[in-house]
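Much of what follows relies on a compact textual record of a protein's fold. Think of the row as the fold of the chain written in a discrete alphabet. An example makes this concrete, so a full record is given next.


***
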Amino acid sequence: MSQQNHLSISLKQIKSTFLNDDEERMLNAKRQMAIAFVEPCISVSTVNLAKWNIGSSLSYIINGDYSKVLKNNRDSLKPNAVVQIWLFRVQPNSQLGFALIKVIDGENSQVID
């Protein structure tokens, strides 16, 4: 886990469109955008969002300081943990942000209320 510095999200895993047209164009042009990232430990980090071709499919990638997120949450983000990523927008300029929510504990598969 310490060697990974990104989180990959397949387009198949996304339930609804979340980027505005400008953000979509930026990522399609192979650029990254900085986003606020609320961690399970409630710390807020700044990470990058990108879009990569992985094999024959596209994925959104959260990278940058993602290894710091893993380190900050090493007591709660165990192998096989199930997480959800929630989008939020901060006014006044509708800045994009994500929150990483753990829903199933990794080691004992316990659902988190």
The mean pLDDT is 86.
